[in-house]
Amino acid sequence: MLITGIKSKPIYTPLSFDASGRYHILLGAGVGANPLLRVLAEMKKTVPQSMIHARVLFKNASAIEATAGNVSESELAFRAVETVELRVFNNVASLLADFHILATGSLMGTRLYVAGPESFIGLAMQIALQFNLNQDEIRAEECGSLARRVFCIHCRAITDEVVTNIVKCACQRWLLVRDHYSRRLAAYMGVMADAEAPGELPEMREVFR
Amino acid sequence: MSAQTITVEITSIAQVTPLIKHFRLKATTGGYLPAFSGGSHIIVVMRGQKRIHRNPYSLLSSPNRLEHYEIAVRRMDESRGGSHFLHDVVKIGDQLEIAHPVNLFGLEKQARKHILIAGGIGITPFLAQLEDLRCGEVPYELHYSVRSHEHAAFLQHLGTREATRVSMYYDNEGATLNFEELLAKQPLGTHVYVCGPAGMITRVIDTARSYGWPNSHVHWEQFNAPPVGDAFDVFLARSKISVHVVPDQSLLECIEAAGVEVPYLCRGGVCGFCHTRVLELDGELLHHDHYLSANERTTGKSIMPCVSRAKAKRLVLDL
Amino acid sequence: MNAIFKVNETFRNDFTFCNSPAAIRRFPLPFAEDEYMYSVNIEPHLPGPQGSVSEFAFDVDEHYVAECHEREIVLANEPLRFQALPHMMSAQWDCLELIMESLARDYPKHFSLSKRNNHWQWSNGPLNMEQRFTFGDAATLPRPPLDYITRQAQGDFVVMDQREGNLWCEAGMVTTQADWSLDFDMGMTFKEWHGPVPLAHEMGVFDRAIKFLLNLRLGQPVRRLNWTMTVNPRLDTSPENYPHWGPDRASVNAANAGDLVHLRVELQGLWRLPRSNAVVFGIRCYLISLRELATIPKWARRVHRVLKKLHPALVDYKGLTRYREPAIAWLAPFDDGSPTTPGTSPE
Ligand code: FES
Question: What ipTM was predicted for this assembly?
């Protein structure tokens, strides 16, 4: 069974401003603020200035917070750009709910930029999918924690913030985390690690930091 | 393409506008014709006296009524091609061969809204698609532009069912479609489809692009009739034969007449299926397709023989 | 098909599945040579020789009734083994039509279909089912169309929508699979879905396959064979149930390999669907134990050699690591080193 090197693992590329778009939605979590600021800086160089909505997560109670960058400085940097309508959130759920509302009123010609941990990107993509945003309308850059959302193929439970090669699921099974990624579930596949020989587990290692 | 063909009989012919004739076809074996999806075309094989024509025509009949297929044929200005054969030669009761439908212009099933833009004969693929759209829940609009009332073919097909969804634009009344207005403010997930004259297609593509529409939301179909041109010669390297391409036949047609098969789907420069490698060239390729990128054109390494030609002392193809 | 349906055969617990001598002789061996590597081995799905598994569009064999029962058992516990995204409804009807028409045409003794406009009447003799319904109106069937018809068919079915120059896995009935999950893979592109397959991506196999499939034409289906191995004649080797079947792999030894180890061959067929312009991917699974295989001397020699020379990445991917050695050991006495004739025929 292939564990790593699976081709469904998304490939992310550094964000860059897409001048072909008319409207721009920027979503960031934690240190994801930095790539977004880079996009803004690139955008400033191109005329005419476009309308930009930024939704950024700076502080929250979940572990994503641990990756948050220098809060006040980046927030100020966003506020310094006049064409940006900025909203700051302290948890992923309310940021995504706001993105949903924003997308409902958005027009063709919109580009979506997402930056942050992969789990954050995945959840934003789930919403983008509902609005039929295609590959040519979305850019994403992975930064911050490499922790994974893991879908247990046996009980369907999702475990968040997995940083180790194996993880204990709610169903009490030890799951091996594979590179196989589902955009629909925004999660990696976890499959029982010791099914063939009970108790024979690989050594636990921290691999997704 | 070695596709099996279906023999059909012409059961009715109607002149629906000064330039367009409407044909109804049924299977000679009786029974139903193959099911298809809105936007599909068929290749009609016409055995003329001197040569065989193979032209693509969109199916305009309802995908839910398979006792017959319907196509509409616009008389083309040039003196060649199948349109004259269909306009002037065939009669009710004649038999033709057709290939199974192929869809290169399907509706996007996950779209949140569809905008259909038709110019003249370009209405045909949309007539079949409207049958599907009518049953669905996704909002749609049709914008149909014609020269004048007498050129508004198939308006009666649309009937009153579509009254609220259809906007008509008659050139002679000065009513022109405002592409900017149409494309500037559409919700996310909208797809636009255009079929009509080349100028209209270009306008839609350019306008959509200027409003930031990504390519994946802009769909168009235009079957280029193979343009006429000067005669030229070509050498087929693998078959080791020379072929003379006459002015009023396409490169593909002449290659086929020489007994060499080239795969094709659309015969209109759209699908990319007939893509052929150019091995040697002393001269210029005259690209008429919509498939090759600008870059591929300049390198001169590829040609789409269904529509493109050459002006060359020597041309060698990998066939 | 003249075979009698072996209605009581099982694919779990007591595993009473076995092949009759006739079923063994028609087994679709996927090895034309003594060595195996991927290739884009796609060929037109044209009618094969009489009695062969490719004689008809969908092969119905002696295991038909038992396999349909097995599918019911799986679905009773795990309804998500059938799924379809909302935009795949017309493709579901396309599949129903394709399967019903093929079965009624190819096995008139067992199946019949009559149509009056959209009023269809279907009867399935082996499963003793009758259904009148309106084609296109899902309310007139007891289940969604793809669910309804694939409960009466052998093999798995995945339906792929075509858009953005890609194929997307967006509906399916998957209960007899070799370790992949429809639930997890729903919504993936063809390439993502095949992400876990080693080597083939690097060899460009999927790039070529996708190019080919995007241009698949109505009325011109294609097929290919694929294979793996399974311990016990278990159809449901899903990742979902890996905790149940995983331990089987550790139970093989050189003495019992002949009965436990099965060659698992997939006859994969691909059809363009007319109304939806989608593509349906049929994956029909055939199982044969090494002991049954060894009744054909040429096949025993060939499979022995293929297993011995198999690329390590494929050994791992096909999950053979724990029991390849015992399987080779069990087959060894059947391989005297004499040459095999080319091709897959038994002689
Ligand atoms: S046949 Fe389609 S591009 Fe030539």
Answer: 0.91
